[in-house]
Structure formats: C-alpha cells, structure tokens
Amino acid sequence: VIPGNQIDLVAAKLMDFYPLPNRPPTNRAGANNFVGNYNRKFRRDNLTAKIDHVFTDRNRLYFRFVYNRDPLKFTTVHPNPISATNNESRRHHATYLLVDTLTVTPSLITEGRLSLSARTFHNVSPGLGSNAPELLGLRNVPSGAFPRFVVAGITTLGAGTHERIQMPIRQQQVVNSWTWVRGNHVVKFGGEVRRS
Length: 196
What we know:
Layout: H1 9-14, E1 40-42, E2 45-56, E3 59-69, E4 72-74, E5 88-105, E6 108-124, H2 132-136, E7 149-151, E8 154-157, E9 163-182, E10 185-195
Antiparallel strand pairs: 1-4, 2-3, 3-5, 5-6, 6-9, 7-8, 9-10
C-alpha cells in the first residue's frame, strides 16, 4: 500500500476517470482488471427532392436536391465521457443538380448539366471544450481538451486528436454534351469542367 502523501495529486485525480475493475487482474500488478466494449452509433438521414418540367416538346428541365446527414458517435466505458478516446464525427452533404435538355433539330440534341455540392466533416474529441487540465491540476498544459494518458496494461484516457475541421468542402461541375445523328451514324461529343 502506497501512503497517501506519496501519491501524485494529478494521478489521484485521474483515478476518477478510469472505469472501476470488473474482473480479476491478469497479473500481480493489477493490470487488465477491466474489460468493456464501446458501440459505434451510426445514423443516416437522407432527403431527396426532384422536379421535372417540360417547357416544350423540344426543351426539358430537371432539378434534383439530395441531402445526407450521417453523424458518427460512440458510447464509452469511461465514467466521465470527456476522457473517452473515440471521436465523434459530424458529417453532412448537400448536392444540387440542374439538367437542361434541348432538341435543337430532330438530328441534334444538347444537354447541359450544372452540379453543386457542399460537404462538412467536423471530427471532435469528447473532451474538446473542457477545462480538464485545470480539473486535474496540470500546469503549463494548454486548456480546452482532455489530455491523453497512455499507461501500459491500463486503458488509455483522452483522444489522440481533438479536432479536425473540413468545411465547407465544395465542388462545382459543368457538363455539356451533344448528340448528332447523320444517316446511319451517331456522333457524340461534349466537355466537362470540374472545380473542387
């Protein structure tokens, strides 16, 4: 037994963030005395809207909107979630597509497409935004996230990365294609410009 006055104050405060033992240890040092699983929680929400409009027999317009939201979260085995190691991802994606088809002559058809999309990916640690260093009594450590503690034989505390922001991720695409029928021959040509 280690006397209380010889235990580091930060280490003593860290003990509240470890799960309690739920099985006998695998060695005399008391290692591997906890087993637990976390679950990944994935949910996807989709929304699709579509409009078709016929201006004339020679001109048709098509519009489509698609929205996906699929956040990724995890459960934790830690008594205080800010010390968990798995990051949550906030993700969503919206796409707009406009297609205009024009029959110039009975033997010449053109189609123009405009596509715009925007994505968001924001990965955050459970401890982001916390004042964990102050709670633990750590000095000269940046605040705002739970620090990572790795001890052999004991579950890790804290995430390795605290935030990754990719937003907005934008893409624009313009496509124009032509179909020309001449006797027994069909000629197709066009071009595409894409910007990301």
